[in-house]
Amino acid sequence: MSAVMVEEGMKGAPLLSVRGVETFYGKIQALRGIDIDVYEGEIVTMIGANGAGKSTLMMTICGNPQARNGQVIYRGEDITRLPTHTIMAKSIAQSPEGRRIFGRMTVMENLQMGALLQDEAYFDDDLRQVFELFPRLRERQGQRGGTLSGGEQQMLAIGRALMSRPRLLLLDEPSLGLAPLIVKQIFDAIRELNQSQGLTVFLVEQNAFHALRLAHRGYVMVNGAITMSGTGRELLAREEVRSAYLEGGAH
Amino acid sequence: MSSFDPTADTTPEGAERQDEERRRAAQGEPPFVEAATPESRLAGSLREAAITAGIVAAITLFFFAFRTEIAIGGLELTVRWPVWLSWIAIAFVGRFLLSFFLYRADRTKASGAAKGARGAAAVGLGKVLAVVFLLIALTLPILLDTLFPSQNRYILDLAILILTYVMLGWGLNIVVGLAGLLDLGYVAFYAVGAYSFALLSQNFGLGFWVCLPMAGLFAALWGLMLGFPVLRLRGDYLAIVTLAFGEIIRVVLLNWADFTGGPNGLLGIPKPTLFGLEFSRGEGSFSDYFGLDYSPIQRFVFLYYIILALALLTNFITLRLRKLPVGRAWEALREDEIACRSLGINTTNVKLTAFATGAMFGGFAGSFFATRQGFISPESFTFMESAIILAIVVLGGLGSQVGVVIASVVMIGGIEMLRNLGVLTDFFGPSFDPTQYRMLFFGLAMVLIMVWKPRGLVSSRSPSAIYKEKKKIGADMVAQGEGH
Predict the structure, then answer these.
(1) How far apart are the C-alpha atoms of A242 and A221, rounded to whole Å?
(2) pLDDT, position B423
(3) Which is it for strands A217-222 and A225-231: parallel, antiparallel or unpaired?
(4) Do B343 and A104 touch (CB under 8 A)?
(5) A109, B465: Cβ pair inside 8 Å?
(6) Closest CA to B50 of B97, B95, B103
(7) Are the beta carbons of B365 and B164 closer than 8 angstroms?
């Protein structure tokens, strides 16, 4: 089924396309010419070890830091040099690394913050959908964000991102620090969003096994460069990927 | 250890039994055993108070009861039993009250559900307090007239001062409490407002009501001017720059003598009028128009109601803004700037609106200050003022509107009350001048409040958005260091 979707998606122009992006932190080069494409309706994952530059790529797409060379193109528009808040207002939503929910605000207020730039008319519908996706958030809606468990906070971070009605959802390590059962719940929710609403997802993950099983296509990043790419199944089957990222992670 | 038997500990059981025995002998009565008949709270409190009084009596005997002074032919001993006894009495009563009302109550306090109920009660209390404050504030001139006719003017003047600080506190609360931008130079906007009004009235002959909005606008403009260079700063760095900004404004006012009058300040700032009616004697005055007898108190009552209206306006606008996107963005900015940007919020605009809005209210308060005093000079706008306003916001509980009112009454009213504490001279001798120690008491009060309530007097925050039922976030959930 994934192969069908990939082929369908491949036909049009990519929703998000990163071309030869190089990002520096001062003199240190973090990304060495990255090329990736994300097509409408796909789940694309980027796996790699700590410090490979996955999160830097995610942040570069969001414009903070900006790429020194190369281009980030979203729906045909060059967004490389736009400020973060302008990029995020273009139907792109992000669940940032470390979740970054608003700790002293309630769950409800957090969700409201996500919908801040959106037409208020959609608010009730969107809220209902988020609550259907993550029923725990409905139970916890009056609770302060900082008092939620890690899994609930991740759900809230994704829910908050969804409240802006995105076409492209960027997720930075949603499985970080969560129990396997919760990780499964979250990945099921992402799959559900993709299948029922056709939401395009770009997922940065260290949890290679779950990420590659979920994703239609995947990229492997090593030291700021893409070393492998292919469908999720292909990558899962490859010996280099198995030995580098899946030893001990596949059970 | 007399029962020590060298043969018994050769077997494990024997050793264990001996060990147990030894331990029992060392311990005596097991500790932490509840008294079979718990003494009544009154008796217990009295006992604790008596112990405290005894300790105080012993410690202070030589400090308070006896005093030696150098006299001709040696030292002269004076005995001051009343001073000593009054300190003992203070210790006794203080300890009794603490034991009776605070400590004992704590022991029976349940956790969990009871805590939540207490949080809810605190919310209810906050609402009740707000209504009570408002009613008192609205009827204060009438209350004073009936209750303390002799001190009418003095208390009314104090109330005006307190309300000025309430308004300043509410203005700064937007910047520090809601948006989380630590501003140590808030007094600069107060100064801009005051000087705007004074200069406009002197150079163009404009009245208070025309200048009031203009002063607010000028202050907001300066808020923006401060905002731009500090956009990228946060926390300590922001605090330093705003501190410098406050000083720059003051130093400019001090040195630009041609324009601002320099250290001599500006004199003859017009008083506010009620639709053109002046509060003075003679033709066309307020009392003449309404056929009343002239009394200087009328002008004070009028000033009082102006600052009350301005303060309430500040409060109303802040409360409304909190429920609008810009207000929510302020609060989100305080929580996490990066998350804000990732939600598409333009943090630049959010910061600038916070600075400008806060500064505008500071400007309003400043022009009120100018018209009340009739005279302004840079001396009124020192760093000390910024510190007091910030202290009011922090002690009241960052972001809490009622907290600011309580803190203003306690801090400003408290400082003022210290002037009248002639009682203290009985203890410290006739040379003791309570006004000189005001700042000491001020500092002590701040330390005590921070020890007792580290998150400020009103540390609970009511959510701005409610879906089905209103829930309150108690202070116990807003733990120190979380939510950053």
Answers:
(1) 14
(2) 65
(3) antiparallel
(4) no
(5) yes
(6) B95
(7) yes
Interface test with B, best of A144, A148, A154, A172 (most B CBs within 10 A): A144
Q: Please return the burial class of B419, using the count of CB atoms within 10 Å of its CB with bins 0-12, 13-18 and 19+.
A: exposed
- Rounded to the nearest 5 percent, the helix, strand and coil shares of chain B are 70, 5, 25
With beta carbons under 8 A apart, name residues in chain A contacting B336.
100-103
Range of lowest pLDDT (A92-106, A121-135, B242-256, B404-418): B404-418
| Residue A103 at interface with chain B, using a CB cutoff of 8 Å | yes
Q: What is the pTM of this model?
A: 0.76
Distance CA B189, CA B385 (A): 12
Indicate if the pLDDT at residue A211 is higher than 60: yes
For Cα atoms B370, B371, B374, give the angle at the middle one, nearest 5 degrees. Answer: 80
What the block records as the tokens of B482 is 């979380």
pLDDT at residue B101 is higher than 80: no
Interchain contact, B343 vs A160, CB within 8 Å: yes
Domains of chain A (ranges, CATH numbers):
1-91+168-251 (3.40.50.300), 99-166 (no CATH)
Write out pLDDT tens, residues A144-195.
999 999 999 999 999 999 999 999 999 999 998 899 999 999 999 999 999 9
Helix (H) or strand (E) holding B79: strand B74-79
SS (H, E, C) chain A: CHHHHHHHHHHCCCCEEEEEEEEEECCEEEEEEEEEEECCCCEEEEEECCCCCHHHHHHHHCCCCCCCEEEEEECCEECCCCCHHHHHCCCEEEECCCCCCCCCCEHHHHHHHHCCCCCHHHHHHHHHHHHHHCHHHHHCCCCEHHHCCHHHHHHHHHHHHHCCCCCEEEEECCCCCCCHHHHHHHHHHHHHHHHHHCCEEEEEECCHHHHHHHCCEEEEEECCEEEEEEEHHHHHHCHHHHHHHHCCCCC
- Tell me how many degrees the CA angle B293-B294-B300 measures, rounded to the nearest 5: 125
Q: What structural domains does chain B harbor?
A: 28-107 (no CATH), 129-452 (1.10.3470)
Are A238 and A218 spatial neighbours (Cβ–Cβ below 8 Å)?
no
Mind giving me the DSSP string for B123-161?
HHHHHHHHHHHHHHHHHHHHHHHHH-TTTHHHHHHHHHH
Instruction: Report, as an integer, the average pLDDT of A19-31.
Output: 94
Residues of B in contact with A94 (CB under 8 A): 342
Burial per residue of B266-299, b for 16 or more beta-carbon CB atoms within 10 angstroms, e otherwise: beebbebbbeeebbbeeeebbbeeeeeeeeebbb
Buried b / exposed e over A18-52, threshold 16 CB at 10 Å, is bbebbbeeeeeebbeebebbbbbbbbbbbbbeeeb
* Residue pLDDT, tens place only, B283-342: 777 777 787 777 888 888 899 999 999 999 999 999 999 989 899 999 999 999 989 988
Nearest CB partner across the interface for A102, out of B336, B344, B346: B336
Q: Among B60-64, B79-83, B239-243, B469-473, which stretch is predicted with the lowest mean pLDDT?
A: B469-473
Rounded Cα distance between B293 and B32, Å, is 73
Reported as a single tens digit per residue, the pLDDT across B237-269 is: 999 999 999 999 999 999 999 999 889 999 988
pLDDT band for position B483 (cuts 50, 70, 90): very low
CB A229 within 8 A of CB A61: no
For residue B481, what pLDDT is reported?
A: 42
User: Are B459 and B475 a contacting pair, CB within 8 Å?
Assistant: yes
